[in-house]
């Protein structure tokens, strides 16, 4: 049931350092994306890209990743050579690329920033990114282990919608989100949880 096409990086991916992470990536048959972790000049450079593009059901989909600040989460030695960039600025830049040069109809962010419904001093989560960046259709959220029963809507600066869904941790649930696209826009969506403890799913 769980298969991966494209993933982003979280703080625990660096628990054993950059070299160990790069070595583990050799066994992955999927892509890694992060637009705000600058990995140039590190062993991750050949495997981690700012974004990926897929054509699914005839729809051109752009997928990008956002990583959490390493401060107080990743030891400096384990993050050596990687530069953390502001998620909002990085998201704006990559969305402009995906909507413009890459001509994507659908833009999806995979985030390890965390879900914080309200603003919090000194912190940026998925709601805060959506509130400051136009053009993100859906954010697959992570990091805060938030068990949402259904997706939520965050308003963008232009008054549009960004869908956000986080389904907890440890592979207990898989989140499914279906998007209806008409004339190049998401017109409707439905999201639900799939409980992997349910034997009927196997």
Describe what this molecule looks like in 3D.
This protein has 202 residues and is of the alpha/beta class. It has 3 helices and 13 strands, in the order βαββββββαβαβββββ. Strands 5-6-8-9-11-10 form a 6-stranded mixed sheet, covered by helices on one side. A hairpin with a 5-residue loop joins β10 and β11. The longest helix is centred in the middle third of the chain and has 13 residues. The chain starts with 5 loop residues before the first strand and ends in a 7-residue tail after the last strand. The model has no long low-confidence stretch (mean pLDDT 94).
Short description:
It is built from three helices and 13 strands.
The percent range for strand residues is 25-35%
Please, what is the average pLDDT? 94
How would you sum up the major sheet? 6 strands, mixed
Quickly give the structural class: alpha/beta
Taking strands numbered 1, 2, ... along the chain, how are they ordered across the largest sheet?
A: 5-6-8-9-11-10
State the distance separating the first and last CA atoms: 7 Å
The count of β-strands is: 13
Principal-axes geometry comes out as globular
Q: What is the tally of helical segments?
A: 3
The radius of gyration over CA amounts to 17 Å
> How much helical structure, as a percent, in the residues?
10-25%
Low-confidence stretches: none
List the secondary-structure elements in sequence, H or E: EHEEEEEEHEHEEEEE
